[in-house]
Amino acid sequence: MSGSCSIQDVFNRFYHGFEKAHNLSALQRKAAYHIMNCKTGAFGVNVSVCSGCGCISIHYNSCRDRCCPMCQELPREKWVDARREDILDAPYFHVVFTVPEELNPVIYSNQKLLYNALYHAASDTLSGLSSDKKYLGADIGYICILHTWGSAMNFHPHIHAIVLGGGLDSKSQWKDHGEDFFLPVKVISKVFRGKYLSELKQLWSDKRLAFHGTAKPYKNHDTFKELLDTCYAKEWIPYCKKPFRGAESVIKYLGKYTHRIAISNYRIKSMTDTEVTFTVKNYKNKGQWTELTLSGEEFIRRFLMHVPPKRFVRMRHYGLLASRNKSKKITLCRNLLGCKKYISRFKDLHAPAIIKLLYNKDVCKCSSCGGNIIPLLPDRYYAKPIPHMRC
Predict the structure, then answer these.
(1) Share of the chain above pLDDT 90, in %
(2) Phi, psi of 182, rounded to the nearest 5 degrees
């Protein structure tokens, strides 16, 4: 098979052979099942008939799995739209926290614990330094999003943080440094390194870490200590982008990172009986896009590495943007800055109304004559009736 294809096509061709040769977790099997059966009728259908011309329409339900490339667009649009009400007309910065690749085997063997440790270290670093009068002396707000992949779907855990470039001081007055980021990158690096490795050592001391596969050698105390010494000796390199231009650009930018998965359908260029070719970004060559070819089983192995732990929350809000704070403190910040409030467009709307706003397509109207469509059978025969259909 050649030409464009989807992740679903790749799984349908290679997954069953891959499953026989590898031990997979229940979550990985579940994600694979969802991807292969998304919008095929396995999760129910919505059958409707036009009241005008009698045209019958069949809509297959999606799986709604957060690892499925076909199920991310509408949740992403709704999530980003909801964030409009929290955005201020103030500088925002994008900070990326990464860890040395030497830690990858240990992190992969202890995903939930050490992913959480990434959030803890990043959050403590940002909140601790920003509250220091030497740098800003204010309580800031930020959103942290975990990604576990590189462009080639290699294992590369890191945190993307969207950071409000100002905050409230001890007198509840707004304070910022304009378009200059208020934290030195080298200071961020040292503090983040110290906090992450400190939590890692504590987990080791409490005997809460597991060691599987390539992480097995680190069961030995001396080998684990050597790993820590290596990581302390390395310079951890965080990344900070220039500030966004206006609140609307922040809203659009959030959508690039919130519901992203390891690879999207558009990056897959071709598939044969044994291999899959897709595009990757070569950061060693100024971010140029090139093509990479992998065996079908290796493609699936890499994809399934990034299935998150059960009920793991990937998007977390801190400081002024935390749920317990934002209703009062964001309103105070907005009043102090004198900026307008951005209203959510999709609040209290059902999926058909949102689709109409986004794509100017009315899914409750017949595509042939424009008449109203109604369920063909009583609601109990459907996974969901048309007005609340899965999209």
Answers:
(1) 62
(2) -85, -5
